[in-house]
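Our preliminary data section would be incomplete without showing what the modeling component actually yields. Below, a chain of 265 amino acids is followed by its predicted structure, encoded as tokens that our downstream tools consume directly.
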Amino acid sequence: HDPTLGATRQAALQQAADALGGYFQHTATITINVTSFNLASHGTLATAGSDLSFGDPGYFRTVVQEKIITNGANDLNGAADDGTAVFNFGQPWGYSGTVSAAAYDFKSTAMHEMAHALGFLSQIDSSGRGAQGNLSGSPDAWAVFDDWLTDNTGAGLINDTTFAFDTSKIGTLTGGSANGVFFNGPNARAAFGGQRVPIYSPNPYENGSSGSHTDDNTFGGAGALLMNAATDTGPGILALSGVELGIFQDLGYTVVPEPGAVTLL
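Predicted structure:
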């Protein structure tokens, strides 16, 4: 509703959504409820998400993920929004063209956040609890993403029979690039030279970042990925890498070569 930048922001957000949606060979219309605040002192740039479609212990897709993968057939929220996004317009943003070194790339940030709503996220918290908040080591609800998470030996973090976190793996959550969390899906591994993909696992644990991003140290500099945890000012990344597309395939999506028809409104 900003009289000066409102239309520009809306156009940039739609462009980001179209760019992300074009990677998926599915037909669905996803509605994201977008809100904002204006606070320069707040370190958060943006957040986005979608509820898990869970009822019992196990691995579950987000509402957005379920709707896209079923090509709109399974609309868990009905007439309600499928996900949410929040932007902090108190921070400096660049919306189109060349983003200045003093501004954050709005389109890149929007693509990153919406990818979380599509299921690129973990539900494992710092103590090993899941989405239901049950005692660590007890059956709980997890994201499909969590089904592929392992330690550096390839041992899973969640027991696939009991759906309980392996409490002996608690140190893995803060083990760093070498001894932390890895994504072990076959498509992601194939795109990463047959190796497990390092997931952001800093010490100390970072709420909202740990476990839900590619590792910044492994994928740094010119090799940085859209789904890294850190975001700096200046031009951002506006494309998914082969590794990230492999992760989305392991999450159940069918991805390019042919453009999809996923529309995010």
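The mean pLDDT is 94. DSSP finds six helices and twelve strands in the chain. Preliminary results of this kind motivate Aim 1 of the renewal.
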